[in-house]
Amino acid sequence: MTLVSMTVNGHAATADVEDRTLLVNYLRDELGLTGTHVGCDTSQCGACVVHVNGRAIKSCAMLAGQAEGADVLTIEGLARGDDLHIVQKAFKEHHGLQCGFCTPGMIMTAVDLIGRKPQLDEQTVRSELEGNICRCTGYHNIVKAILAASEEMR
Amino acid sequence: MYQFTLVRPKTLADAEALLAKADDPKLLAGGQTLIPTLKQRLAMPSDVIDIGGLKELAFIRVEGDAITIGAGTKHFDVANSADVQKHNPALAALAGHIGDPAVRYMGTLGGSIANNDPAADYPAACIALDAKIHTTKRLIEADEYFKGMFETALEADEIIKEVTFPHPQKAAYQKFPNPASRYAMVGVFVAKGPWGIRVAVTGAGQNGVFRVKEMEEALARNWSADAVASIKLPAKGLLSDLHGSADYRAHLITVMAKRAVAAAG
Questions:
Q1: Above 90 in pLDDT, residue B181?
Q2: Is A109's CB within 8 Å of B102's CB?
Q3: A51-72: average pLDDT
Q4: Cα(B79)–Cα(A10) distance, rounded to whole angstroms?
Q5: Between chains, do B102 and A57 touch, taking CB under 8 Å as contact?
Q6: Mind listing the pLDDT tens digit for each residue in B188-202?
């Protein structure tokens, strides 16, 4: 067991965990931040995407210990009180979700993407979402939501 | 996962020392292969030595007519490097299509070639570009480095430090990706440089990356997609799995080779 500490959504976090603990389980089980989801076990679906030191990564493919001292942002950290992040609002307005299971990962990926490429087109959004799988929507409204959000954030 | 002890050395020298004295250690770089492997209980190391954060392993340097990339450099950084895009755009493009965006933020060059997955992209680049692999112990030529499926020339206590890629005159990589994992079902890297002409194939061989001498000779006589169009590899020795038969891969090799030559210009 090792004491692993990091900053999560702006707050200091620390927990005594086994070395084999994945970051996704540290966030969900130790910190109660269950917005980050475990979808696939094969690192393909992207439901577990969070930001570590400003980069959108798959938290199921990272040990908590690798994030020691890091700055972590999860879906819970996007809204400001009752004010949703622009990307969250866009998913709401453009019906970018059905069951919602993939949605936190989609949104975290989108926030990273818009930060890197403020000027987006449909082709680019679709290829940048290759690491996020959705079983419900057929991606159409997810792409629309991301394009709308990026317009508003420009 | 089985239990293990996670150690996070602060320097490469510390990592080397830990690697030498641990019972049954595994190096962790980006973790994009090792963590899934551990999750499936396909490995049972006593110690996991995390070198993913070592700044001394993450760099991109232009040195004369070659680029040297630190083993700990992430695929994202190789893909977006102005230097790599300028001197070796085919290499930047290859890095930019490994896995998916989240994988590219974590995965490393050293991790990829130390693992030598038969469907990984970087081995094809190393072979086609006549790369030099610098470890904590020696320099290994790419041709001597890749030994077989998941097998390399690396010794148990040896760590890759950096890889040198000489600038090519013409080069391109074309991959037919698996739609879910985006691993290469077949990936062909063709390059023409001071070392000559090389055609390297990944994703298809039972022993990992291999060169196609027949295509290299045809391209030396006539650098064009037509030159390789009629060359069909036998299915023998190629991978056959749920993603595709050996015959299908043999066919894809010719198609991807044609596309790579056309893209190389």
A1: no
A2: yes
A3: 98
A4: 30
A5: yes
A6: 999 999 999 999 999
Q: Quick one: pLDDT at residue A103?
A: 98
Domain B170-264, CATH homologous superfamily name and number: CO dehydrogenase flavoprotein, C-terminal domain (3.30.390.50)
Which chain A residues are Cβ-neighbours of B3 within 8 angstroms?
A: 18-20
Mean pLDDT value across residues B251-260: 98
- Among the partner-chain residues B4, B53, B180, the one whose CB lies closest to the CB of A20 is B4
Enter the pTM of the model. Answer: 0.96
Does the beta-carbon distance from A19 to B5 stay under 8 Å?
A: yes
Using 50, 70 and 90 to split pLDDT, how confident is the model at B111?
very high
How close does chain B come to A57, measured CA to CA in Å? Answer: 5
Least CB–CB distance from B36: residue in A2, A43, A65: A43
What superfamily in CATH does domain A2-77 come from? Beta-grasp domain (3.10.20.30)
